[in-house]
Amino acid sequence: MASNGTEENGTTDQPTTPLVETHPPRISNFSGNEPKSGDTTYELWKQEVKLLMKQSYEKEAILNAVRRSLRGEAGYAAMRLDLDASVEEVIHKLDSIYGNVDKKEELLAEFYGSRQKEDETVTSWSCRLESLMGQAVERGIVGRQDVDGMLH
Q1: Which residue stretches belong to region Disordered (predicted)?
Q2: At what angle do helices 42-54 and 122-138 cross, to 10 degrees?
Q3: Is the whole-model pTM more than 0.70?
Q4: Which of 66, 81, 116, 148 could form a disulfide with 125 if both were Cys (CB 3.0 to 4.6 A apart)?
């Protein structure tokens, strides 16, 4: 071994820490009520953001991804918030504009009164019903444990 702490072949005798490169998170684009090609719905966009928040990304990285993903009127709505607004504040603002604001009775009435449309596939109808149930759970109208029974 050489006197400077390296072996004769030039490598050090100390273990090296692998370099971990993290890529900035990416979120699907959301434009608002008039979705453009390649955009997603508000519900799916919000779910992506919530999933990112559960991962080990830094809050600032998530906030930057959120702001980059917003287009059109949704982008303008977020732009009106303070520059220091958190992800939670952005979601709260967008919820007030794009979130479901139906009264709980109206939401449950829509669920119970829902029928498969003539041109609707069973899969599409099922997704529509599950979406209504997801909104009811999120708003605390229905317990998560009751969803399967109600869908059956």
Answers
A1: 1-39
A2: 60
A3: no
A4: 116
